[in-house]
Fold each of these.
Amino acid sequence: MESELIAYLRRRLPSHPMLRLGIGDDAAVLRRAGADDCVLTVDLLTDHVDFELAEVDPRRVGRKALAVNLSDLAAMAAEPLAGVVALVLPRQGGMELAVALYEGLLPLAEQYGVAIAGGDTNSWDGPLAVSVTLVGKVTPAGPLVRGGALPGDRIVVTGAFGGSILGHHLDFEPRVAEALTLAEAYELHAGIDVSDGLSIDLAHLAEESGCGATIEIEAVPLADAAFRLVDRLGDGSTPWEHALSDGEDFELILAVPPEEADRMLAEQPLDVPLTSIGRFVEEPGLWQRDARGARRPLVARGYQHEFE
Ligand SMILES: [Mg+2]
């Protein structure tokens, strides 16, 4: 399982004077004497896992390959700088596919001022794989990491959750500008982007911070897509369940000190709504509280890559 491999790498990878922050966050932070700290991140998308090439315009896949990396830079409140693109193309129709991927990726790169500095291309008889590596710059507000949440901090989220499979997972807007705005204007203790699922990514953040988190279930903002998905599935699942576990919302979860959170929520400085959905608590674990105030454990659900 991916979490086991990460645990192995945490033990196995040697420390290095340049690594201000290594494996285990949304991106690594590199420190070099006399220069701004850099942020480094990579993502890999594969046909049949992250998208179905037979069913989507490859331009949307190319855009997503960059957008997921931008979302990780947003989670660090870092400014995007440059990237490289690696493609493993199927032999049949590879050239046409590569052009379409780039035609989707390049407008987003331009929008975020990312210099595409190069890449590498292979072809084989297997499915398409696309990997983007991005470098970003830490701003004076410092990198936003997963490990800084304190008991009492509010859990503040951008946007709404659930049902991303209906299209949002391909066409989402990474919260780069939002993260930079918030990091500059408010004290933020910790942050993560929601790639695997609201509950599981919140659990990751709480765990890294050595605390727990309680979600006020009725406060979780539900995306329209969460309701549409429930209608479509007709399987008795609820929009709240989808909001907590669907993944690929690519919104931000932030740990914000209480007074800062009050100010932020009153000012609503972004185009996208900011919502407090609970607070971090001393007791480790994930909890949910319903409208009547009853508290019970919440099982973190979301996407995990499985392998043996
Ligand atoms: Mg992430």
Amino acid sequence: VKQKDPRTHLREANAPGTKLSATAAAPTRVAILGFGTVGSSVAQLISAQKKNGVRITHVFNRGVARKRVAWMSRDVIWTERFEDLLSPEVDVIIELVGNVELAHRWISRALIAGKHVITANKQLIARHGGELVALAQQHSCRIAYGAAVGGVVPVIPAILEGLAADSFHRISGILNGTCNYVLSRMERARIAMPEAIAEAQVRGYTESDPTSDLDGEDAAAKLVILAAIAMQRLITPEQVRRQSIRTIDPVDFDYARMIGCTIRQISYAELNGKHLIAAVQPALVALDSPFAVAHGSDNLIAVYGKHSGRLLFAGAGAGGDPTAVAVLSDLLAIRRGHSPAAHNAMSTTEVRGDLGSRHYLRFVVKDRPGIVAGIAAVLARYRINIDALMQSSGHPAARLPFVITTEKSPADKVADAVKEIAKARYHVQPPLNLPVLDSL
Ligand SMILES: NC(=O)c1ccc[n+]([C@@H]2O[C@H](COP(=O)([O-])OP(=O)(O)OC[C@H]3O[C@@H](n4cnc5c(N)ncnc54)[C@H](OP(=O)(O)O)[C@@H]3O)[C@@H](O)[C@H]2O)c1
């Protein structure tokens, strides 16, 4: 359904005539809302780059007394009252708190008060981005969210500006640094997932509760934002098919390697006729693809332009300092009064999760004769063709992992077949079903 709805703008709102001038005599006055990992890095970067024409006026945080730092200018007002940030002394509010409801309320009030807003809050933009951009336009302000996807990787400004002349039909990416750290550590260090997650926590790549990273919520929000700005499709994070990476075992990397692959969390969106395919899931990717080469907390995003072909963007997807660069770059763009072409038409669309790929099915069984024949019979009944069967030696018969790969098959059909196979009593753990993405 094609609709023109101002609430659905998911673009940087750069209404002409917004109030900010970049002159040496008039520094841009900035309030930082949330002084945590990214907020303090942004403040440090602004303080270190004295010539950028930006001055911090306020820092807002709960329990703000414990947040004070000696390196900040003594003129800065440290506050727990949001209303202080609406002072005429503030031009731009940078939201780095992270909560969706509170951030929504605060950003709406900031825009209504005529403040430009910068945020790195992907969940907020995925859910309320269109409405907030429209509000910014109504009040002749701008809202920018370049740090919401890809950390420092400038994929949002690239799509909005550098590639504005093209249209995009496919995006695939590693959009969550935590999952990439966990999976690439399992691959390289031969460690189990809990150990890799604990390492990611120690390094500050994930929070004490890593659910949103591991189960795909974080990447789904980023995919929603990319689908909006690159494909003008308005979808919700809940419409994105999601599969957790928690079920991956170290043995899966051995079997994946046997067919020239490794495993990464892949976010994928593709326009296919009238509908959009959108999924976030662990998937097998070819060892010679750029996705396999992305290690640690890196992000890698491929966008496919009608005329430009495939473009790759890669770099640090998380971390205070890299994310602060993206935030400050948004701020400098606003300070310059930079205006990428506004985009208005946005379509809602039917969403499917089927990538129509080959599948990797891993079973861990208590060995006895007839298991493979039984599984093959179920797959045959669902008209799913087997491509290969792999069983490496050295595993105990009481806990024997083996793998079947299929030819290209509809995901729902494979899921139904696996559900039926999973009912058998010989399984030691539930079967694993992953897509094999040959052509990313
Ligand atoms: N960290 C990254 O690598 C990264 C990368 C890209 C985007 N982002 C996004 O950037 C935003 C900030 O992330 P972060 O990692 O900097 O988070 P963080 O370290 O948890 O910082 C959030 C800050 O906001 C404060 N805060 C939270 N709730 C509050 C409330 N109700 N009232 C007042 N202050 C409150 C926290 O105070 P307390 O100290 O009291 O908790 C903390 O200082 C999030 O939207 C995140 O998704 C982060």
